[in-house]
Amino acid sequence: MPEIVLRKSAIITETTFHEGGPAPEVPLRRAAAMSVIANPYAGRYHAEIAPFMEDLKPLGVQMAKDLIDALGGDAGAIEGYGKGAIIGTNGELEHGALWHVPGGYAMRELMPASAAIVPSTKKIGGPGTRLDVPLTHANASYVRSHFDAMEVGLPDGPKADELLLVLVMSTGSRIHARVGGLKSSEVEGKDGLR
Q1: First-last CA distance in the chain
Q2: How many domains does the chain contain in total?
Q3: Would you put residue 164 in left (φ > 0), alpha (ψ -120 to 50) or beta?
Q4: DSSP designation for 67
Q5: List of residues 6+ apart from 116 with CB closer than 8 A
Q6: Which residues contact 44 (CB under 8 A, 6 or more apart)?
Q7: Residue 101 pLDDT greater than 90, yes or no
Q8: With a threshold of 0.70, does the pTM exceed it?
Q9: Is residue 49 part of a domain?
Q10: What is the DSSP letter of 145?
């Protein structure tokens, strides 16, 4: 199996105190962990790529741990999550799909209430490409207040033969969420939806 060659990692955090309305009791915190790695499949078509997901699992767990630490160290305080990938121009979109299992399961493994599917996005692009990573409630996908996104990217990656892998977490809903739907306090946590 290919070896993971990590060129760069980064964590960005955001704290939102208000969005023009009343300030919440607790500010919203979001963070993104990014890793730029060599794409072992760049440059030509490879029929068998799925085994690389197993190799990516330790990286996913480390990134998830780093995110939890960046947001205060309490996995129970994380309410939202998402993942994404930017594939360098010598790769194909399917190479970003390799991140689905190792990225999503890493976060779910470390969070006590994480039954919801981890939303995802991916695109092909070069250095400086930005990606809007979707977020949903970590335990119930129907919690509308947690539908959000965090824009991420790095000025020098991914290069043509690289992958930029991303995990995102948040500590709550949009600051002034008020469009109805299932509330976080009403989540039953049985099916990942409600």
Answers
A1: 39
A2: 1
A3: beta
A4: H
A5: 136, 137, 138, 139, 140, 141, 192, 193
A6: none
A7: yes
A8: yes
A9: yes
A10: G
